[in-house]
Amino acid sequence: MWWGVAAALLANVLYSTGFVLEKKALGTMPAVSVEQPARLLRLVLGSPLWIGGSLALAAGFGAQLIVYRTLPIAAAQGIFVSGLVLLLLLSARLLGERTSARERFAIGAILAALVMVVLSLSPATDTIGADAPTPLVLLICLPALAAGPWIYTTAERRSRQPHRRPTTGVEYAVALGLLYGVSSLAIKGLSGRLTGPLDALGSPYPYLLLFTGAFGLIMSQAALQRCRVSLIVPVCTTVTSVFTAVLGTFAFDEALPGDPVRLTLRIAGTLLAVSVLLAMPKHDSPPPEPPEPREPPEPTVHEP
């Protein structure tokens, strides 16, 4: 189990570093759009800094395979979300991003909610599921795969409306969180099928991972370029964690806590995270207008 905790903490470092490097690289590029995926890929693949960030993210996915083989899904999500603290420190230090007081309160409440989920764990009774029925996996994943791009494209259309206030990117983050939630379940499924390549290829997990990886790559770059990484990633991580912890626990038959206190903590933590997510601000405050230049005073004329 300790190997799983160490791998989860390593994944946190890799994910936070990867997102910040990609955001920094995107800040030097022309505007990218999901409507021009070939141009987007050409721009990002020409940036060594972006490639470094993407390699860090890929290594984070590799670390997840170890995590899901040694920890229950809910426990893993609680540790993953703790990485938001490192992300906020890096985004402030390297990108100069600042969050509002309301956003800091919301992120703090999200962390508190997921601490409740972690406290609901019991090493003595928690089980680690190895596989899930394919029809059940598809029943869970296909609606999320449809909802993610729909939410994203709806947010894109709204952003083009004239006189619309600047968006914080919450809608983009929710859409990405659903895609990455499916990715997380696919990684969990693959972690139990590492006995041979044919065993893995006969499951839906590699194909779900390829689909979410391709769409997540294109959608995340446009979102990261337009919005603050210090808001996009926490919201995306929350959606991914809640999706994976709740539906993954059910699909992979990892038992819920039998103790009433632990069960209450898990349910209350999940509901708190979702409610805080829904209450987060959807728009950035417009930048303050520069003060009008003051006219120089009239020179005093002294009578002779």
Describe the structure.
- This protein has 304 residues and is mainly α.
- It has one domain.
- The chain has 12 helices and no strands.
- Helix 7 packs parallel to helix 10 and helix 8 runs antiparallel to helix 10.
* Radius of gyration, taken over Cα atoms and rounded to an integer in Å: 22 Å
Counting copies of identical and different chains, the oligomeric state is single chain
- Count of individual beta strands: 0
Query: How far apart, in Å, are the first and last alpha carbons?
Result: 94 Å
Keywords for this structure?
mainly alpha, transmembrane, 12 helices, membrane, 304 residues, Membrane protein, single chain, transmembrane helix
Give the helices and strands, then pairings.
Elements: H1 2-26, H2 37-45, H3 48-70, H4 73-82, H5 84-94, H6 101-119, H7 134-159, H8 170-191, H9 197-201, H10 205-226, H11 229-251, H12 260-279
Quickly describe the structure.
This protein is mainly α and 304 residues long. Helix content is 71%, strand content 0%.
